[in-house]
Recover the amino acids of this structure.
């Protein structure tokens, strides 16, 4: 399928500010860029660097007083949406080396605190069956409520509060998967169904020898997502990191199926 992406950012800055930007959809084996353009306005510095796992790129910018950025793209998604329940478990001692760090606890995903809960709640289920159980638990126990969480909210906070946004749902999903000995990471994506329209966070789990996307919010499916970046948790996939003070003037994300 084809999707059109339009991102507009407008911030007032407190003087000279360094910005690390990651908003461009990545060219991958299962998604391709039909066309794309980014305009970061007047910058003193513009330099691209590889993002985590070489999925996409980040851009270092140095901007003074105001940052106005426009990004547009048309992406073709060639990815299928597999039946997660049928995916096989892979013993941890046979996992590829590059997946091991995604078994470990991270800042927003303290999976070591959830091992007892996962064992008690999901029993002896494994692989795709375990992931379906995790996703069902999230659907049954978490409410999507904008504004109740912030940039420092962890999976533990969301587990206790039982509400959050896509970032929080993804953190809980990643945490419970890791606590179940399934490598899991967070993924920033664009998708046309997101309500309210915004940058969207989902999870990716390593089962049956491959990474597979899952959306714990249930808003979209893998065949309708354009991946931007991946990481251990939200700290690795932030669309913009500012080294200085800023005031938001305007921000919009529009994604439409073509």
């Amino acid at each position: 399928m084809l999707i059109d992406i339009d991102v507009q950012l407008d911030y007032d800055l407190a003087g000279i500010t360094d910005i690390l930007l990651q908003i461009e959809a990545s060219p991958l084996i299962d998604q391709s860029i039909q066309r794309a353009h980014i305009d970061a306005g007047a910058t003193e510095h513009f330099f691209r660097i590889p993002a985590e796992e070489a999925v996409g790129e980040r851009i270092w910018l140095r901007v003074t007083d105001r940052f106005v950025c426009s990004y547009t793209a048309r992406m073709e998604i060639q990815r299928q949406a597999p039946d997660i329940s049928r995916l096989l478990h892979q013993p941890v001692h046979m996992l590829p080396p590059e997946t091991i760090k995604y078994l470990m606890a991270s800042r927003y995903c303290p999976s070591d605190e959830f091992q007892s809960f996962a064992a008690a709640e999901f029993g002896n289920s494994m692989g795709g069956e375990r992931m379906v159980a995790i996703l069902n638990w999230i659907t049954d126990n978490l409410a999507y409520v904008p504004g109740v969480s912030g940039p420092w909210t962890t999976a533990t906070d969301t587990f206790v509060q039982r509400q959050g946004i896509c970032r929080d749902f993804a953190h809980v999903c990643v945490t419970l998967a890791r606590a179940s000995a399934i490598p899991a990471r967070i993924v920033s994506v664009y998708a046309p169904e997101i309500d309210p329209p915004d940058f969207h966070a989902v999870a990716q789990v390593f089962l049956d020898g491959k990474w597979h996307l899952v959306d714990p919010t249930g808003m979209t499916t893998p065949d309708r997502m354009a991946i931007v970046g991946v990481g251990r948790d939200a700290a690795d996939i932030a669309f913009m990191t500012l080294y200085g003070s800023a005031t938001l003037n305007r921000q919009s994300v529009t994604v439409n199926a073509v």
Helices lie at 115-122, 127-141, 155-161, 166-179. The longest strand covers residues 57-77. The mean pLDDT is 97.
